[in-house]
Amino acid sequence: MTHDSSQAEPLFLFAEEAQELHELVPEALRWRCLIVDDDEGVHQSMVFAMNNLVVEGGLIEWLHAYSAREAYALLQREKDVALIVLDVVMEHEQAGLDLVKSIRTELKLIDTRIILHTGQPGFAPEITAIRDYDINDYRTKSELTRNHIFTCLASAIRTYRQIRSIEASRQQLRRIIQGGSALMSLEDDEAFARGVLEQFAAMLQVACAGLALLRQAGDVWADVRVLCATGARSAAQGLPLSSLLDADLTGACLRSLENQRAEWCAQGVALSIPARDGCVLSLYLDASALVRRQVDDSVLETFAAQFAACLDNRSLLARLHHDAFYDRLLGLPNRRCLSELLDARCAAGTQGGWVLALIDIDRFGEINEALGQTFGDALLRALGERLRAGVPAEAMLARLSADIFAVLGPQDCVLPETLLPMFATPLSVLGEESMVSVTMGLTRLVDVEASGGAAALEAGFQALRTAKSTQRGQLAWYTPEISRQTHDRVTLLTGLRTAMRAEGLFVVYQPQIALSDRRLIGLEALVRWRTESGEMIGPDRFIPVAEQSGLIREIGFFVLRRACSVLALLHGEGCQGLRMAVNVSAIQFRHPAFLAELRQIIGDSGIDPCCLELEITESIAMEDAVYVRETLDALHGMGIQLAVDDFGTGYSSLAQLKGMAVDRLKIDKAFVCDLDEAGADASIAGVVIQLGQRLGKEVIAEGVETEAQADLLKRMGCPEAQGYLFGRPMPLDDLRAWIRRSRAG
Description:
single chain; alpha/beta; Rossmann fold; Beta-Lactamase; Alpha-Beta Plaits; eight-stranded mixed barrel; phosphoprotein; DUF3369; Nucleotide_cyclase
């Protein structure tokens, strides 16, 4: 580097002045600068020119390289180089620019500032090179006076410091976010506070010597105790804030609480982190004045905001956790909580001698509907209080659903004789006395063959369903046989669903004849199930399962479509006027889309609706609901015939029956089997026949198996019959053959 002697500025400092400046500089602050030049004189002149000069609060630490290759190797091993002063022309004309390219693209030193200089102005870099490689400055060596050197270096180092400060802030913010996410899920308050304090220390880059306090809404700060204390402050653990003898520390903490911002004192910094619910986390860390100068206030604000959000989220998580395990209305443990306790007991093998009781409030839905949800909720609260008071302390009380409670405890305290008396006296509900009855299912956990809480809970529900299937207000104990029956039903249901997809279900047809001349007058369509293995599953087994699962509606419409299609086919083959009877389940009949789907099926098949007969149960026929009456009237209006199946097995009102739009009464086969000559007229079959005659309803007897039964029914005035005597339920091809034989005979 050449020195212009015409510059008035001296190239050196007096020793006393240099010493004075040197003493003002913090020992830790040094800027590492690399001189890359093949001229030894440039190195010496640059160092001499900047000797002990303070730049951006620090002194320069020089590194030296005398070629581009040497500089590249040095930069591979040296870290935190703030500035490179680089000669353009060294080994060759582009050595300096090639090195700049390698620094930026290969070594990825993006923050490091670069000043180019050259003693050969003809080899000055192009503007594009200065722009593309982020070159901080360019000078000819003749321009490098002491003033220019200081100005260039100060500007470059200032830029480097700003870049590093921004990057440091970015890294601090990243650590803040990551730290908050990691700590948010901690349930223990002390562990959370300690973690935040450690994050605070890491952000400030100081040792974690401090304390944290957590004040709940409404607490007096002077009484709040130190939740955690670390490092040199660990002796403060558990002490109230008012008892700390360090006035400087407590003053900073209180000012931070009052001003809701970071407050520095001679020893360190206090920071308050408030949450929306009034909870405040107060932090204090020992930190030097140098740390204070290096920390950006915006970073502290961001830290406080991030962990304030963490406090809010912890509060939210606590509420969600409570809601996940406890019932909101009554505050009792819920099904999930009970299930986890059962899991824990089963895993530990301590379920022996324990009983689970499920208590179902009878007709709670009707109570809610009749008296309103407010009354229903009050009833549940009253019942919950009754159970809380009556259930022994060693047992757990839970609420599993709207109207089902559970009690889990030792078998000597969870027994019917201890639980049922709680429902023997009225409850006080909204100022009125109200009695409730309950159905109860009890399970000894040792009787449950499968392991785990889910299996124990399912056993409890199986016992409850068993009790409800007999009569409300009853109780039942779980047995392994109940579980096996449930398993069989589930297996049957799974197979039934498969059969519906794989056409395992099919329809057979049983002839209905006129007893006067044995003429075919109708058919009854009946569904059958053949498994893939060829086994026949009887309707008495799968129809109840279909009704419980809701599949009966889909099965019913399958039979109805197939029956109407076959009826249209038989009409086309000369069996004009032949009627087809199809059973309709209560679920299918009550469905809102029943009439629309029925019309669609009749329209698609093209049959005369007058030739279709729907068989409904006596319970549906006698139901006085408006929609039932309207549906029956609509069916009659379409010309469809209606028959009451298994008439006599239920309860019928003669007044209702007289005005009902039904055409035919079916005598159940059980009454046909009981017929004998002596008491024929007095038999139920005889009564039904006489009733039908008086009300103007047709009567058909089913289950006729002998000629004696047929003759007796004929003499009693029964016009129609069906049964094995005339023909078994047959597939379509067998039915056609039967029809041909009956015509030929």
